[in-house]
Specification:
Largest sheet: 7 strands, mixed
Mean pLDDT: 84
Helix content: 25-40%
Distance between the termini: 47 Å
Radius of gyration: 29 Å
Number of strands: 22
């Protein structure tokens, strides 16, 4: 919540009026349930429509699919009165707030980590992706504590803070130490004005709860006071839709825009507000596209910047990066007999949440690729914890494969049954549609990465061309090789791979037969994340392609099938 025009700028007469508002707030909330709490429902059919301006190419995919058909959520109205009394604007302009699932999870965490035997509790710094409702959580927590008659202080301004307890409510300057703080939890919103809690709160309050953007200068104080870091998770699409609805906007297109730009309530609100005003979100989406592209360019120029976005070692983040990289708690896979992933709340990690944003990232990388940057990106993406967070397993494996095959070196081990060979990655990237293969230089290696439109037409993920070489002065020239790259990952249906390798080989033949006539041999290279997956598919594909034939005369064409493994941390 913004504090522009807040308490520090109030005149004496305005301050008298404020006193009245605060007293009314105390009477309404202290020891009483907030009257304007309601339970509402939202169906998935209400939020999964597409705008009339959308086309198939705009359809996208969100990595955090939530298959909730109906959401029952708690809505707290009357927040405008509270915001006015506390000299703050309602978060995101709402008169009502939606109680997100994360709010309840965080509340339980705060209660469970409170020690009854200690007078001074460990502070907690709550952070997470910008615009997901961290400040709104403070108001939810304030109401929760006032209802239970728990003394609570709150600071939303650099000049003043408020204390609510059984004596009433009082306003204090941020330089004033009040003994009533000894029993208070102090709630602090680190906004554009407040960098850290004021001295009286940090030194005297029983416990400090600070919400803050993921910027180091706003929570670096926590080490001095031994505070715990808590990273909030992203809301799901249905919760974003509920927020849109409570702002009195049409939520019907929420899933479409969340699947394109990610689950940021602030961003989706900007989009629907623009649609409500001018009938289209084109201008807002252009800005989002530009900022995501800017972020992708920075990452491609310096891949190691991704490591600085791991929150426990955060160095800095361009604000525009938040439209491409979303901050979430680190996820750790549970044991085989457990389901889901464990959230490590003490560490935030970046992720690219949608296919649309992933395509922006890959397009910028392919436009600026060098052998050096490919190797850097490959190594960074293989580091822990980025390998488990930045992208879904399939996307991560795909981008690491493309990066590895454009490094030029070191050699890549491939296998075919008991036969082993070493493959030289290329440093020459062919950019453009399928037609560029017609002009491929047969004297040097090349790597072709399909565009999004081409990928929809093909079943393979790239083509690596290795020219033939002479093995001696009198020896015959060795044939060159064309490798159709196929990604495969464990724990996915069909190993995340093509269903019909025969159809894939037919498409490969259609687009590379001109190279075959120049002495190239067709191959399929299965790049897997586990050896067992690669071996299984090499065996299957070899059998399927044993009698591969093409053309009207059904001429038999030999297709080699190879496998290789890229594990996390491989050089």
């Amino acid at each position: 919540m913004s504090t522009r025009g807040g308490l520090s700028s109030r005149s004496h007469s305005a301050f008298i009026h404020l006193r009245k508002d605060l007293d009314e707030l105390h009477v309404e909330a202290w020891g009483r349930r907030w009257q304007a709490c309601q339970t509402r429902r939202l169906c998935r059919t209400d939020v999964d429509g597409s705008p009339q301006t959308a086309n198939d190419a705009q359809s996208s995919e969100w990595t955090h699919h939530d298959h909730i058909e109906e959401l029952e959520y708690e809505c707290i109205e009357g927040m405008g009165r509270m915001a006015n009394a506390l000299c703050a604007q309602p978060s995101l302009g709402a008169q009502a707030i939606v109680v997100l699932g994360e709010y309840k999870t965080l509340l339980v965490h705060l209660i469970e980590t409170e020690s009854a035997s200690q007078k001074k509790q460990r502070p907690v710094v709550v952070t997470g992706h910008p615009g997901i409702g961290k400040t709104t959580f403070l108001f939810y927590l304030l109401l929760y504590r006032l209802e239970r008659k728990h003394p609570t202080a709150i600071q939303l301004d650099t000049g003043y803070y408020f204390i609510f307890d059984d004596q009433g409510v009082v306003v204090r300057r941020c330089t004033h130490y009040d003994h009533r703080l000894d029993k208070c939890w102090a709630l602090v919103d680190s906004n554009s004005e407040i960098v850290k809690p004021c001295g009286p709160l940090s030194r005297r309050a029983a416990r400090v709860i600070q919400t803050t953007p993921p910027e180091p200068e706003r929570w670096s104080w926590y080490e001095q006071y031994g505070a715990a870091l808590y990273v909030m998770d992203l809301p799901n699409a249905m919760e974003v839709a509920a927020i849109i609805k409570e702002h009195n906007y049409d939520p019907s297109h929420t899933l479409f825009y969340v699947s394109k730009w990610g689950p940021s309530p602030r961003t989706i609100l900007r989009i629907v507000e623009e649609i409500d005003k001018v009938g289209t979100a084109a201008l807002v989406e252009d800005v989002l596209e530009e900022s995501a592209t800017h972020a992708a360019q920075k990452i491609c120029a310096t891949p190691s910047i991704l490591l600085s976005c791991v929150l426990s070692v955060w160095v800095c983040q361009d604000p525009l990066m938040s439209n491409l990289l979303f901050i979430t708690p680190r996820r750790r896979q549970r044991t085989p007999n457990q389901t889901g992933a464990e959230l490590l709340r003490y560490q935030g990690v970046p992720m690219i949440p949608t296919k649309h944003l992933f395509d922006i990232f890959t397009s910028r990388w392919l436009a600026t690729i060098t052998a050096t940057s490919s190797l850097q990106l490959y190594n960074v993406l293989g580091s822990d914890p980025l390998a488990q967070s930045l992208l879904p397993a399939g996307w991560m494996h795909a981008i690491r494969t493309h990066a590895r095959l454009t490094t030029g070196s070191p050699l890549l081990r491939i296998f075919q049954g008991k036969t082993e060979a070493w493959l030289q990655p290329s440093t020459h990237l062919l950019r453009g549609a399928l037609g560029v293969l017609e002009n491929a230089d047969t004297k040097s290696s090349f790597y072709w990465y399909p565009s999004s439109s081409d990928k929809n037409l093909l079943d393979f993920d790239g083509i690596l061309g290795i020219p033939g070489v002479k093995t001696g002065l009198l020896a015959r020239r060795k044939r060159g090789d064309i490798y159709a790259i196929v990604h495969a990952i464990s724990n996915h249906e069909n190993d995340g791979c093509v269903v019909s390798v025969t159809e894939m080989a037919e498409k490969l033949w259609d687009h590379t037969r001109h190279l075959v006539t120049k002495g190239y041999k067709l191959n399929v290279l299965v790049v897997a994340d586990e050896a067992a997956v690669a071996q299984r598919l090499v065996t299957k594909f070899t059998k399927d392609l044993k009698n591969f034939r093409v053309g009207r005369k059904l001429v038999r064409v030999g297709v080699g099938v190879w496998g290789c493994v890229l594990n996390t941390g491989d050089p």
